[in-house]
Amino acid sequence: xxxxxxxxxxxxxxxxxxxxxxxxxxxxxxxxxxxxxxxxxxxxxxxxxxxxxxxxxxxxxxxxxxxxxxxxxxxxxxxxxxxxxxxxxxxxxxxxxxxxxxxxxxxxxxxxxxxxxxxxxxxxxxxxxxxxxxxxxx
Length: 138
Known about the structure:
Oligomer: single chain
Low-confidence stretches: none
Order of helices and strands: EHEHEHEH
Strand content: 5-15%
Mean pLDDT: 89
């Protein structure tokens, strides 16, 4: 039996959804396929790559994809990780469940490099905590 796909969607597919994809693949990859996409993809944010590398997860090979791009497998679960994506995300008829869990946008943080990286770390850790609770409930 093939594993169900979880699709994480945010506006730019640059930080939150990319980190969530990498985290799911790393933590629950034996149970789920992980994917991510955006309503207006813009490239993976370098600080998202850095925050994930710190915990041993390499997302440097990830690319931003549009939510309308065809996927190998239709998602069984769709998770919107920002309010804008929730409003603009298309309906996935094959999805058994669509969940909205908004996380702050770390790319909007200003300040020093370290302050900005800390914002990405905080969001990464929030995604980890939410994912462990959510995936455990599936």
